[in-house]
Amino acid sequence: MILAMIYAIYAASWDFLAGYTGQVSFGHAMFLGLSGYYVSAMMVFNNATWWGALIVGLLIAVGVGFIVGILCLRLKGPYLALGTMTMGVMLMNLYKIPKLKKYLWGDEGIPNVPALSPNSIVVYYTVLVMMIISFIVMIQITRSNMGTVLKSIRDDETGAEASGINTTKYKVIAFMISAFFAGLAGGLYVMYNRSINPLIFQPLFSFLVLVMAAMGGIATISGSALGAFIWVLLREFLTSPELQKVVEGNEFLTILTRPTFLFSILLILIIRFASEGIVSAALERLKSLWDILLGR
Fold first, then answer.
1. Which residues face 196 on adjacent strands?
2. What is the per-residue pLDDT across 138-189, written as a single tens digit (0 to 9) for each?
């Protein structure tokens, strides 16, 4: 549940950027990783408090979000996606360079990060509160005047500019807000996992968040959370020792129960039969059921 809540914040941060502003990022893991690295570095080497380290990690993520937003202003569509993915891959390889190990901790990353608390219940409620606050803030932003402006940029950027909207400013702000919450997820991930390495920058972490958002429903925020919970809980079930004992020796069942394979099939079915995600389809069904019960 802790991991699912962390991924929910991460997926919602991507959905805020792509779903409401139309800025599709394939390198969102850079914000997750940089915040996570800085949090763990502060905790291990500078003996900072966990909360102080988290604040610094968030500032780093927002600063990088500002830089990435500026660099990607002229990129749109697939070029923006590839540009952000390239930045994430560059960071992953940068952290692997042996000569920079003294400064970036090398291929092995940072192990044995001090825990926030020896009691896992404290960690659970800390992440839960962070997730609730994050979702409230993001949803309120999407419902505000700024949210309306961001959606206008997503739907028709040329029309938004013609209306006098400074699209450059709002796109950069959207990147910074998205980076803030992705950085929060990165800090919480280190607190939960208690280690981090350069693999966190790999494209897989960026694609995974896209899949979670697509499953739940892009531009819904809450749908991203649902997609994250489905992914994590399904993976936990498929990798459980009990299920592995059942499928052991059966090659077909072994392939069928691989999380990535089954999740891909599930995603294809959702895109085919509920293109707007699970949340929208479920709400439509509930509305129809409610109308039937009222005799409308």
1. 110
2. 999 999 999 999 999 888 888 888 888 888 899 999 999 999 999 999 999 9
Residue 110, SS3 per DSSP: strand
The three-class DSSP label of residue 106 is: coil
Domain count, the chain: 1
Whether the model clears a pTM of 0.85, i.e. scores above it, the answer is yes
DSSP 144: S
Distances (CA, A) of 244 to 173, 239, 247, 258, 295: 46, 7, 5, 10, 48
- The answer to whether the beta carbons of residues 170 and 149 sit under 8 Å apart is yes
Range scoring the smallest mean pLDDT among 5-9, 126-130, 245-249: 245-249
Q: Give Cβ neighbours of residue 153 (< 8 Å, ≥ 6 apart).
A: 21, 22, 160, 165, 167, 170, 171
Measured CA angle at 132 (ends 138, 49), to 5 deg: 100
Q: Where in the sequence is the domain holding 50, given as residue range(s)?
A: 2-293
Both tokens of residue 148? Answer: 């309306």
Calpha distance 281→206 (Å, rounded): 25
In contact, 203 and 81? CB cutoff 8 Å: no
**31 and 179 in contact (C-beta within 8 Å)?**
yes
